[in-house]
Structures are given as structure tokens and as C-alpha cells.
Request: fold
Amino acid sequence: MKRYLPCLVFAVAAFAALPAVSATLTVEITGVTQTAGKMMIAVYDSEASFRQQAVRQRIEAPVKGTMRIAFDGLPAGPYAITLFQDLNGDGELNTKLFGIPAEPWGASSNGKGSFGAPTWEAASVPLPAGGATVTIGLE
Amino acid sequence: MDALRRLLPECPRDPASDTPPVPGRRRFLGDALAGIAASAAPVAFARDRLQPGPQPGLPAAALANSLAHVPGAFGPTPMTIQGRWPAGLQGVLYRNGPARFVRGDTRYRHWFDGDGMVHAFAMGPGGISHRGRMVATTRAGLEQAAGRFLWDGFGTHFADARPTRSPDTLNVANISVLPIGDEVMALWEAGSAWRLDGRSLQTLGRKTWSPDTDGAPFGAHPRIEPDGRIWNIGYLPGSGKLLVYDISATGRLHRSAMLDMPHADMVHDFAMSAHHLVLVLSPLVFERGEGAFGDLLRWQPQRGNRIVLIDKDTLTIRAQYEGEAAFFFHLGNAWEDGDSVRVQVMNQAPYPALHAAIGQATRGLPITPLVPVPASERVIDRRRGTVRDTVLPTGGNEFPSFDGRHAGRPARRLVVLGRSADAPADAFGFDTVQVLDRQTDSVARFAYPRGVLAEEHLFVARPGGRDSDGWIVGTHYDSRAHRSGLSVFDAGHVEDGPLAQVTMPYALPMGLHGRFVAAHG
Reply:
């Protein structure tokens, strides 16, 4: 998985160019069992930018059980969310053999294809104008 | 009381079985303890039932019936031995197989899906006892708490299934066993091994061989050298890689290596010769999408089979070869033969037909009949770079077993299950135990009565005996009585039928693979 350190300037510029309609995307993370490290959440708005350039990102202190993180002011449309718990603080999702993640992680899912690393096709979920909550179980 | 009816209490009365015993055959008397001299006759089982006359059928629902209403645990159950259990055959037969298929409103539709249950048949001077316990995997615990299956099975897709994020997400630890020391591990296709206590079968936890391989796929068919050293593979569909494990006899990981293997989307088994690990890769390609893993494997026979020889010293690929396409789950033994490497392949019907038939059988439906495909011995000529196939005379077969003291060397005998020619074509399963003798180029066979399905039968060496001298031990499911049993045969005379047999007071879900651990090592 790519580094979760998007260029903030780019993200702000992209946001400034969007139309006035804005919705809140609430990401609900379940199954948090450890409080170590940081929860790194990235939101993507297109297949081309998926796992390359996040439109929003957040770094949060992990809370056991369920966490809720709100991303305001997003235009309605499809989004995909990936997240991981950076236990060792190196900013990267560490992996073991076969690219199996060594740290807890999760991604949004629409049920289409469910094996291994998420793809835009399997991870994109719609954000309507009224907002939505996307629940992601941490593995 | 008629000896036959004591064995099979719920069978319909067959007038043919009331005929007097064949002159010269002693009538046996059952007894609880092996070694009582009065009952030395072979168990009167198949030969009597092969008398002419109406035979009870093998219902298409036989496999499904064995999988229905499985209790959460079995035993410990002491069992009555009929016939004379060989005094030298002492130890534990461990077996594994899919056992739980229903949770709340959710139901699995493929035999390979069910949560694993490991069995131990302990054979000692006091008799034989059976115990079975579910493997308490992470997945089973979460689904138990939820009261339903949360993820897909190998062959079952749920519309609202959670995504599969890592190999262990789907792990039901239901295929085979690997006993080491005081533990027995429950193995699965492509996830971690699970550790159980070798006596109580209590789940101890998930096995980690090393930090680097933690959570990596560990295959269901490790190959064991005569000196106990263990080789295994692990694969991840779509990864283009294969992991190889080199483990000591005491269970310590010595080395692991990742190899480039672009055709390794489903590698259930592999073989071992003196110098090589032998991979035979069927042309199954994993296609990401919505559905169960087993349904996302595309059969592409035009690609042929790829055979890969891995050098055991360096854990690198020595050479690769192309051969005729054939689908199979299991390989028998492999061995070096001059410039060649030979490997026994248990060919099956093409994957789509077999996969569909297993699903039908699991649901209790008649299966679309499967074309019988003979097993073959593939000869890989390393000098010429060619692969030549010889058909084995055993016919279509499965569940190979051979003398582990000659693993990777030309063992004399190969034990395989087969189907009798007149078994009903719409009922899935095996009913015949076959022994291929490479020395005499002959096949000996024992057919269970119609209505009885054989499970894997293992060769067990007689202590101090020669190559392939010993016994054959295996379980069966009797669909007529809804009971399971365990039989032992002389490996040199399987055609004589069981030397002794145990009938359990219940039916076990038809299972997959096991291993025998002899007493005193």
C-alpha cells in the first residue's frame, strides 16, 4: 500500500475547485482492539486516484471498539476509503509475505469481489447529497 | 445371531445372507479386546454381502446425510472390535474434515466449506476409542457469536458476506492434520495451521512458524521425509508466488523461500523426490470478482499443465516443463529415476464438472455423472526436457497413501480409493480400496458393500517390516445404518477384506485426510 501522505496543497486546491453542494461522509471503524500507534484514514474520489492521491486524509488516535470520523464538505459521488493502524509509526502499512498486511487495516466494500487488496470497483461506495456512513471492519 | 446382522443391525433382511457360511471359514465372535484368540477369522463383511440377490442402493444423498445434524463433539467413546486387531498396530489415527454446515439461517452448499473437526482414534492394548472436537478457529468463534456464517466458503457465496482481507479470514482448518510432538495441527488450503492438544483435541491457538511467515498460507499436504523433515508450500491465488517451507521433524522452521510461480492459483498438493519438490500446476486461473473462491477458478485446459522442479538444497526452481492438461487434487509419491523424475498423479474429471458434482452431492442431489479418468505416472525426462505419461492400472482414484519410510523413493505399494464399476453414477463417493503393487505390476481390490462409502485409507508400516509391509487403516460411512466404522486390512492382501473392524455408535461427517502416529514414536 502507498504512503498515506498526500500533498496537502493539492488536496486543498482540489477542494477549492469543487461545486457548492457538500455532504458529510462518516467513516465508522469497528473492531479496534489496540490503542497503539495512529489510525490513518484516506478517502479517494476516483479510480484514477485510488490509492495514489487521497482527496481527504485523517490521522487519529485509536479508540478501542468503534471509531467515527466525519469528513465534511464533500460533493456527492462515489468514494473509496482505505485505512490502517500504523502501530510502529513509520507512516506505512507494513506487509509480510505475499503482501499480507502486518498491521490492522480495512477498506470500504460494496460486495463486488472480496479478495485481497481492494480495488476501486470493489471498494467504491456512493455518497449522496444527504451524507452517508460507511462502516469498515478492521482486520 | 447371524454374524452379519450383528455388524449391520439396521439392514433390510437379505435372504442371500442366510446361506450357511462357506465351508472352511470360521464364524467369528466379536469381543471388546484385541488379542483374545477365539476370534481369528477375517471379519465377515463384504464377501457375504457380495452374494447374488437384491443389493441395497447407494443413495445420491449419502454424503449429505453424513453431514446433517453433526454434534459439536464426539466421545471419548470406547468401541467394540470385531475380528482381531493386529497386536503391532498401536497408536493414534488422526483425521480432519468439514463438519459444521449450518449456522442460524445460513447454510454451506459445498463439502469443502464446513468448519473443521479433528478426530482421534486411539488404538492400544485396551481397545480403541474415538474422540472428535471442532477446531476453534478465529473465524468459527466470530461466526458462533454472530449466529450465522459471516464470510463465504470455498464453494458457497453469501450476498452479504464480509470481504476476505487475508488468507486466514476464510480459514476453517478442515482438510488435514500434522501431528508433531504432543500436538496435532489442523491444516487448511491456504491459511495458518491451527494447534490442538494431541490427546484432548482442545484448540491451543494459531500456529506461527516465524514472524515473517506469520499468517502466510500453509498448505494442507506437507510432505514428510523418512527422517521426519517436513516440506510444505503456501500459495495465494493471483499472487504469482509460491512459498516453500523447510521444517525440522521437531517442528522448527529451518528456512522459507518465496519463488516466482505465475501459474499457482490453486495448488492443493505437491510431491517430493530425493532431490526435488515436484509441483504440478493445473491450468486453473483465479479471476477476481463476486463469488466464492471455488467458483472464481477458471479451467483453461488449452494451457496444459506446468511441472516445476524445485531443488531442495537451494530452494530455487531447477527446471519447468509443459505437459498435457489434467485436473487433480492429489499426487502420490515421486522419486528420482536416473535422469528422470517420476510422479503419480490422481487425475480427476475436469474441474468445473467435479466442482459442480461435489456441490450437488453436498446438497443431497443426484450428481451429473463424472467421466472416470485414470491415474497416471508422469515421467519427467530432465535430459530431454519431455514429459511422458503412463496410465496406472488402478482406474480413476483418489486419496493416495504409501509407505512414508520410502517417501521420495520408489515405494512398492500405492493405496488409493476407487469406485466399483457398478456404483450408481449419480451418487458421489468411493467404495473400493485398491493397492497398486509396482513390484508385481498388479492391483488388489476390496469393495465395500453397496451403500458404504470409503474415506481415506492409510498405509501403516509394520514396525521393522520391509517396504510397504504393514496394514491399511481407514474409516467408512455406512449410509444404510447411518453409522461410521474403522477397518484394518493386511496391506499385502486387501482383497481378503478387513482383519478387524470397529463400528461406531454414531455417524461421522464424511471427512478428508488423516495421519497415523505409531505408539512410541
Remarks:
- The two ends of chain A are 15 Å apart (CA to CA).
- The helical segments of chain A are 8-16, 120-123.
- The CA atoms of residues 3 and 91 of chain A lie 7 Å apart.
